[in-house]
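Example record

The entry below shows one chain as it appears in the dataset: sequence first, then structure tokens.
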Amino acid sequence: MGFAIGVALAVVFAPAAGEETRSQLKRKARELAKYPERKAEEKVEEAAARTQEKAGEIGSRVGKEVAEAAVKAVTDEVLRKDNQQSA
């Protein structure tokens, strides 16, 4: 808000023609109007990047756990068959 007031005062007191001053004010107003949208887009992009990173971490962890469970299941099955054949 302070930035907008400062820009408006600078433009008003700057030695420029009326049309040029109005043009500058309009341009600055458009830039300020887009500021919240740009900030929101930045936040969404940051959140998407963090989410993607976390999904990768979870996927890696789940994949590792599934692989370990598969190895354990095969090992248990082999040991069970060996025990049945020995008995």
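Notes for this example: The mean pLDDT is 85. Helices lie at 2-13, 18-86.
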